[in-house]
């Protein structure tokens, strides 16, 4: 029994590490961290690129809004599933739809603003 528990624990830990490393690599590329500073071997020091700080901030806001939407979705889904009363469940579903709609609109606006800032 203890071996099975340790195998499950090890598998879950390895899976978590894989997911974290994948997302950190993806977000590192998506946030443009490589574009912010680039290495010039002739000069032997870091030179800032021509990316405005507003673009970097808009990318960070986009990613954080996506994560906030995901977390709100999971938390509300759990709260709705735990509710037994049908009327209360219906009210929570309405609030949930409104909150998610607002967050999706904010995400869309942030993507549009980022595209306008790049021009």
Strand tally: 2
Strand content: 5-15%
Radius of gyration: 21 Å
- Number of continuous helical runs: 4
Weakly predicted, low-confidence segments: none
Order of helices and strands: HHEEHH
Strand order of the largest sheet: 1-2
Helix content: over 70%
Which structural class do you get from the secondary structure elements? mainly alpha
Termini Cα gap: 61 Å
The chain-level mean pLDDT equals 76
**Main sheet record:** 2 strands, antiparallel
The shape is: flat
Summarize the structure.
81% of the residues lie in helices and 7% in strands. It is mainly alpha-helical. It has a domain at 50-118.
How would you characterize this protein structure?
The chain has 119 residues and is mainly α. The chain has a domain at 50-118. 81% of the residues lie in helices and 7% in strands. The protein is built from 4 helices and 2 strands, in the order H-H-E-E-H-H. It has helices at 2-30, 33-36, 53-82, 86-118, and strands at 37-40, 45-48. A two-stranded antiparallel ribbon has the order 1-2. Strand 1 and strand 2 (45-48) form a beta hairpin. Helix 3 packs antiparallel against helix 4 (86-118). The protein starts with a helix and ends with a helix.
């Amino acid at each position: 029994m203890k071996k099975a528990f340790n195998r499950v624990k090890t598998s879950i830990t390895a899976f978590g590490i894989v997911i974290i490393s994948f997302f950190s690599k993806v977000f590192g590329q998506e946030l443009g961290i490589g574009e912010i500073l680039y290495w010039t071997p002739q000069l032997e020091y870091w030179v800032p690129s021509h990316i405005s700080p507003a673009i970097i901030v808009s990318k960070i806001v986009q990613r954080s809004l996506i994560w906030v939407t995901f977390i709100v979705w999971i938390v509300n889904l759990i709260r709705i599933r735990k509710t037994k009363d049908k009327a209360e469940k219906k009210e929570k579903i309405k609030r949930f739809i409104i909150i998610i709609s607002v967050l999706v609109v904010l995400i869309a606006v942030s993507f549009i603003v980022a595209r306008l800032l790049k021009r």
